[in-house]
Amino acid sequence: SNRKVMVLPGDGIGREVMQANMKIIDWLAKYRSLGFDLSEGLVGGAAYDAHGTPLTDETLADSMSADAVLFGAVGGPQYDDLAFELKPERGLLRLRKEMDLYANLRPAIVFPALVDASSLKPDLVSGLDIMILRELCGGSYFAEPRGIDVREDGSKLGYDTNAYSTPEIERIGRVGFDLARKRNGRLTSVEKSNVMHSGVLWREVMIRLHGEEGEGVELSHMYADNCAMQLVRAPKQFDVIVTDNLFGDLLSDCAAMLTGSLGMLPSASLGDIDPDTGIPAAMYEPVHGSAPDIAGKGLANPLAQFMSFSMMLRYSFGQAEEADLLEQAVSDALAVKRTGDIMTPGCEQTGTDGMTAAVIDAMDRL
Amino acid sequence: SNRKVMVLPGDGIGREVMQANMKIIDWLAKYRSLGFDLSEGLVGGAAYDAHGTPLTDETLADSMSADAVLFGAVGGPQYDDLAFELKPERGLLRLRKEMDLYANLRPAIVFPALVDASSLKPDLVSGLDIMILRELCGGSYFAEPRGIDVREDGSKLGYDTNAYSTPEIERIGRVGFDLARKRNGRLTSVEKSNVMHSGVLWREVMIRLHGEEGEGVELSHMYADNCAMQLVRAPKQFDVIVTDNLFGDLLSDCAAMLTGSLGMLPSASLGDIDPDTGIPAAMYEPVHGSAPDIAGKGLANPLAQFMSFSMMLRYSFGQAEEADLLEQAVSDALAVKRTGDIMTPGCEQTGTDGMTAAVIDAMDRL
Ligand SMILES: CC(C)[C@H](C(=O)O)[C@@H](O)C(=O)O
Ligand SMILES: CC(C)[C@H](C(=O)O)[C@@H](O)C(=O)O
Fold first, then answer.
1. Which pLDDT tens digit goes with each residue over B184-236?
2. What is the model's pTM?
3. Ligand 1: which residues within 6 Å by Cβ?
4. Which fold has domain B129-258?
5. What is the nearest CA distance from A192 to chain B, expressed in angstroms?
6. Out of 3.40.50.2300, 3.40.50.720, 3.40.50.2000, 3.20.20.140, which CATH number does the structure's domain A138-258 have?
7. Which residues participate in substrate binding (chains A, B) (predicted)?
8. CATH code, B1-106+266-366
């Protein structure tokens, strides 16, 4: 098989939902003859515990030579006091940067069965299906200079740089126009061009790119603060939102939470397409974190991990049929069982294993 | 009178709601013998139209020598294509910076009469009363270097710096502990210390300050993306949130919108206390913008402006009694009349004048 997948469960519930995902992979091997060449590695706190670093060079190399990476979650309170460069998150950030996964796709979808789980009123969110496209390799997360300096008077200065270049904006902008074209044709570019110079350049490049390559897409611009407001006020006004790394971090979490489906939401982080294989550099990851409070208890909702795996089937391996099957099974399973995070009265509550079994049952029946 | 107030209506509905506010000021002069020494100036697009700059040195000097500034709103589509330094917002930003108004208080309150106007489910927001304290003179808004450079290959680099120094964090932190002490004793400090060096220093200083001066206040820390989520999930968990300029911009707009009371929310921007007068440098401003879509139609809700003026009475001039009176009148008026933005079935809809008259009626009766 040429489907080389690097599996990085990480920490906390990341390990539990990844274990559950293995059952889905086994099912596909058994009943659909869909084989993967799997390797597993440590990342985050687990890697720190074993090797004193949140990502070893070896695991990074294995990830880069794989066709796709399936990621769980990282972090935990026991790592809170580690130095900046040793924290679990650094493993994730290093993967994003070294694999040059600049396009982070974060769908915010309300599953019909979960409309009532949103904190927003049902009519504002029912049928919601927006895509947040977050630039993932630049801006405040990586640009230089950054650090903490001690000044002459003994006080300190902590600083980060939010920098974007023309080519960095162009490549994420292109993904935005492509995505919008495949969806409802509307792209909202979000920045603070009234305050930030990086935002001025961002808007300038988006406008030019729209003229050159944006045919069939309606481009609009919105300030990031207004976008945070509008997501709460009337989220259905959006189709695709494209924004920088830091704004994307806040806005995608806000959007994810308002769906009420946080435990259900996947993400894909994509880089350039390999000219030899035709496959993009790619990592797939649930939007939720490592949830230390429920870790190890068998309570975690595995559906975001499954949906991330389904994105992998679709975007990395072109297995649309199996992706459809898995997504349908997830949707069917919701009618039968629910983990605690998405419980609503009248449903039967279960844990990670029960939820996984319900999905596999549904796959059997499809 | 030594209550010198500089009035800056600005653009769009800023002018209409400020005009309405003058009726409140007249009432206080007539029935409470409360006099103000008022001057008026241009800011934003209005200043640009008259003088080619969004804030003249003269208006800035007048604002700095006043005891307090009452601000309306700035901006409008006709100024969209102006150069960065000429845009209406620059007038506002220059006032904040030159007057060193580093502490921006943004209450997010749900008025009982408006619970149903929120996009969140009523039980999540009824009784909501949180305070977002935003640092207003540093970070990505002002720190250097910033700009757009043309590189050797002809492409551009747009960059901004998010820098915070120990004293900058200390002075806003102190305001945070003070506010929390006067409220429910809980302060949540929000940053991205898992990613940004400015955030690492921010957290470090907040922890030290808590040990030194935070008695009676419970301090917790939250990442900004998680805060955006938690505001949507369960906003009542917060008391005071303290955060930097850029995060504060997004989070306060998000919080304001979820109250359903956007047209009602005031803000205060405070600087250091003048040792001669005992009065802080101060500017009071509604949270809403200039609303070009409804400007000039007499439809604007003046209540956020009135509430801002009420904050001025309280914080700058110690007129708690009059502030209470005005706030009670606003609350009473809501039972009688509503502008379009806060209409709910069963209420009588009105415009700026009608809403103002309802407040003045209520003051007459109190
Ligand atoms: C864990 C953290 C470093 C990460 C980020 O800030 O990007 C996370 O919040 C995310 O959104 O994937
Ligand atoms: C108008 C704009 C410059 C301003 C800001 O970004 O601070 C506004 O959004 C605010 O929050 O007061």
1. 999 999 999 999 999 999 999 999 999 999 999 999 999 999 999 999 999 99
2. 0.97
3. A 89, 92-93, 249; B 194-195, 225
4. Isopropylmalate Dehydrogenase (3.40.718)
5. 9
6. 3.40.50.2300
7. 96, 106, 134, 225
8. 3.40.718.10
In this structure, the number of other CB atoms found within 10 A of the CB of residue A60 comes to 18
One of 3.40.50.300, 3.40.50.970, 3.40.718.10, 3.40.1400.10 is the CATH number of A1-110+262-366, namely 3.40.718.10
For ligand 2, pick from B136, B249, B308 the residue to mutate: most ligand atoms within 8 Å of CB.
Answer: B249
Which chain A residues have a beta carbon less than 8 Å from that of B124? 119
Tell me: pLDDT of B164 over 70: yes
- Residues of B with CB below 8 A from A220's CB? none
Q: What is the pLDDT of residue B277?
A: 87
CATH 3.40.718.10 in chain B is located at: 1-106+266-366, 129-258
**Tokens found for residue B34:** 């409360």
Cβ(A229) – ligand 2 distance below 6 Å:
no
Residues of chain A with pLDDT under 70: 1
What is the bridge-based pairing of β-strands A147-150 and A129-135? unpaired
CB-count burial class (<10 Å; 0-12, 13-18, 19+) for A64: middle
Please report, for residues A184, B113, B119, B354, B358, the alpha-carbon distance to residue B335 in angstroms, rounded to integers and kept in the order given.
42, 7, 20, 13, 10
